[in-house]
Amino acid sequence: QLIVDFPAPDAAARAELWRILIPANAPRADRLDVLAVGDAVRLSGGSIANAAHYAAVLAAEDETPIDLPHIARAVRAELMKDGRQVRKSEIGFLCDHLSEDWT
Questions:
Q1: What pLDDT was estimated at residue 49?
Q2: What would the DSSP string read from start to end of the chain?
Q3: Which end of the chain, N or C, is less surrounded by CB atoms within 10 Å?
């Protein structure tokens, strides 16, 4: 058996992952700041890949560039996969881009 430990990416690595994992041919809103997103949300590389793909799908459904509400919805969905409730502190400023009320 082999166990490989992948350390959690830091904010700079998360921002770079967001930058490269959002599909290159997908339009992005001007205000989409991957540095801010990488700093706000602590996700693994795999979770960022899932959220980036889902954000692109949401934007395509809306026929708009990928924007912060798409990223926020995708991040929240990724965090909720294990059935737990997501706290506002886990997604930082992205909660301002969700339509749900936060307590």
A1: 97
A2: ------PPP-HHHHHHHHHHHS-TTS-B-TT--HHHHHHH----HHHHHHHHHHHHHHHHHHTS-B-HHHHHHHHHHHHGGGSPPPPGGGTGGGGGG-SS---
A3: N
- 86 or 55, higher pLDDT: 55
pTM assigned to the model? 0.89
Place of tokens 């996700």: 43
Alpha carbon distance 45, 7 (integer Å): 10
What is the rounded distance in angstroms from the CA atom of residue 2 to the CA atom of residue 40?
33
Distance between CA 20 and CA 94 in Å, rounded? 20
Across 20-35, average pLDDT: 95
Is pLDDT of 65 > 90? yes
